[in-house]
Amino acid sequence: MTGTTSFDLPTYLEAERQEVDAALQRALARLVASLPPAVAAAVRHGVTSGGKRLRPILCATAYRACGGVAEDPAVYDLAASLELIHAYSLVHDDLPCMDDAALRRGTPTTHREHGEPAAVLAGAALIPAAALQALEAAQALGCARATSLAVTRTLLEASGAGGMVGGQWLDLMGEGHSLDGAALDHLHGRKTGALLAASLVMGGLAAEAEPAVVDALEAYGTAIGLAFQITDDVLDATSSAEILGKNPSDVVLDKSTYVSLHGLDAARRRAREVVASGLNALNAARVRAPALSGLAHYVVERDR
Amino acid sequence: MTGTTSFDLPTYLEAERQEVDAALQRALARLVASLPPAVAAAVRHGVTSGGKRLRPILCATAYRACGGVAEDPAVYDLAASLELIHAYSLVHDDLPCMDDAALRRGTPTTHREHGEPAAVLAGAALIPAAALQALEAAQALGCARATSLAVTRTLLEASGAGGMVGGQWLDLMGEGHSLDGAALDHLHGRKTGALLAASLVMGGLAAEAEPAVVDALEAYGTAIGLAFQITDDVLDATSSAEILGKNPSDVVLDKSTYVSLHGLDAARRRAREVVASGLNALNAARVRAPALSGLAHYVVERDR
């Protein structure tokens, strides 16, 4: 793919999304078979109600950029584990005791549709399912044992104490308080950045990439995670709920945002600078993939 | 240990509990290091506020009964992963949208002490931590790759969709409804039995036991899980909150219990019959361990 000029990002994203959705359907079929119907419905709601599938696509893209075999369907099974974790975090973050959100991607949130007990249980069922999915997919991809362990550890650490769990707490604590720039970066680095970076790291590890390449993928992932959040804040400040498909809730909840902290123009500039630094890290490690450049620009230029 | 007549269960349980608690302290040190203090405190509360450590002790006991090296401390790291999952389930089951419990083991429940958001996040942080702990401990024990995967899968399946998550839902749905004997067995088989059986299976697998032995351990674990729950119902019906250290909440919540269904005497008789069938399974597979016989009787003869 190196050097091609005919790369079309929307076509690429759509094709990838279909592969990811097929893998998610495989995962769901296994997962819901043993769940009571009401919890199964909540799991399906959390996993299938839209979404860009950005994390799995980043994982599969990184895998191929590092020399992984392009056609292996098991890479999408590995990638889907990230979406299962992402879905769990959205379901739990929306709960009444957290953000108490009514809408997500234009539809009622999981607990509004299926009740709070089913939503709590659905989220909790997704975590072990994701761990098992990652472990088995790494093995199916033919990864060495140490690699399988590293891939799974990356997912578990990003989703647990050192990653999203801490980030969600910092986010909650930020309500009604003014955070400075460093605190806001730290919050979003854990809440959003950890899993995005893990997506790329898992793809690179699964392809047995060199440590320097994995480090570059992590830097790129952290950068686009931050750019993604800054852009979210910009969109919250400039779009209506109708376009976003969710409530612009950070403003309502009186959370610090990149826009409230730096203003709209500076926030947009920061997002572009951050993306450029992520792409520089990839270039320095000689990771060349038009999809990764395209995705970096997409993250800051999207309108929802 | 086979055939010894000097086996003293209380001494054994106390020595094992100390090893398990030491392993839990190692696990907690790693886990809380990366958590915000309030969530770290909720995790500590959930993991360290008492408890019999029955699941880890069963795991370590099964490991040794199947020829595992008695002195390897990594077996307690493996065993501790079960307690991390057990702690997560108690923290989440006590939440306002679940059982809304105020007391657990004589102290306020985690959400009453640390707030609901910290309790939800603490529970969610424990799941990936437990998965990682099991995976790494199996490797430290020198398990083959397939065995490590089987050990970890056993933990994840028991804690997820096919096990405790479904069991908790059935338990909630049973409030205010009359369940028949089969439905009550199914509920508790998932809510309590799955993780108890997993404890024994994980110990047997880690010691590379034969499939027939692992099956016998599972049958024994399922049996003592059921006997444990029947005994809980008997204790709820006959003890005060002061002795139990918790509210006798199943009666308050109008849940079906083995006592409400069968009466006190028949419930006690059933617990003994179930334990006997579990011990028969062990005998048939020639698994001889005084600790496993002792534990089976302890489960039905305990007073809290």
Would you write up a description of this structure?
The structure is a homodimer of 304-residue chains. The first copy, chain A, has 304 residues and is an all-alpha fold. Chain A has one domain: Orthogonal Bundle (Farnesyl Diphosphate Synthase), CATH 1.10.600. Helices cover 75% and strands 1% of the residues of chain A. The first copy, chain A, is built from 15 helices and 2 strands. Chain A has helices at 9-33, 37-48, 54-65, 74-93, 110-114, 116-140, 145-159, 161-173, 181-206, 211-238, 241-244, 249-252, 258-262, 264-284, 290-301; strands at residues 103-104, 107-108. Chain A has a two-stranded antiparallel ribbon with strand order 1-2.
Characterize the overall form of chain A. Answer: globular
Q: What string, H for helix and E for strand, traces the elements of chain A in order?
A: HHHHEEHHHHHHHHHHH
> Superfamily at the CATH H level of chain A?
Farnesyl Diphosphate Synthase
What's the multimeric state? homodimer
The total of beta strands of chain A comes to: 2
How big is the Rg of chain A? 18 Å
Q: Helical region count of chain A? A: 15
- The name of the CATH topology of chain A is Farnesyl Diphosphate Synthase
Task: Quote the distance from N terminus to C terminus of chain A.
Answer: 28 Å
* Class based on secondary structure composition and strand pairing of chain A: mainly alpha
Strand order of the largest sheet of chain A: 1-2
How many domains of chain A? The number is 1
Low-confidence stretches of chain A: none
Instruction: Look at the structure and give the CATH class of chain A.
Output: Mainly Alpha
Q: Give the averaged pLDDT of chain A, no decimals.
A: 91
Tell me which protein chains meet in the greatest interface and how many residues each side has: A-B, 48 and 47 residues
- What amount of the residues of chain A lies in strands? under 5%
What's the CATH architecture name of chain A?
Orthogonal Bundle
